[in-house]
Amino acid sequence: MANTAQARKRARQAVKQNAHNSSQRSTLRTAIKAVRKAIAAGDKAAATSVFQSSVSTIDSIADKKIIHKNKAARHKSRLAAALKALAA
C-alpha cells in the first residue's frame, strides 16, 4: 500500500490511466474487427473505406504509445494484405 502522499497520488493516476488505455485498446480491437467483417462480407468498396479509418485509429493509438509502433505496423500490414487478397 502507498505510504506517502506522492505514492497515493501516483496510485490514483495509475488507475485512471489504466482505464483510459484499456478503452483505447478496446477501440483498436473494434476497428480491426470492423475491417475483418467488411472483408468477410466481400464488399471491397466498404472494406476499403473502413480500412482507411481503421489505419487512422491504429496510428493514433500507436502515437500515444498505448501499443508499440511495430505492432501497429503489423496490424496494418495484415489488414492491407487481406484487403488485397479480396480484390484478387
From TrEMBL:
It comes from the Bacteria. GO terms for cellular component: cytosol; small ribosomal subunit. One of its GO terms (molecular function) is structural constituent of ribosome. Keywords: Ribonucleoprotein, Ribosomal protein, RNA-binding, rRNA-binding. Residues 1-28 are annotated as: Disordered. It holds the Pfam family Ribosomal_S20p. Transmembrane segments: none annotated. SUPFAM superfamilies: Ribosomal protein S20. The keyword Cytoplasm does not apply. One of its GO terms (biological process) is translation. Belongs to the bacterial ribosomal protein bS20 family. Binds directly to 16S ribosomal RNA. This is Small ribosomal subunit protein bS20. It comes from Herbaspirillum aquaticum. The gene is rpsT.
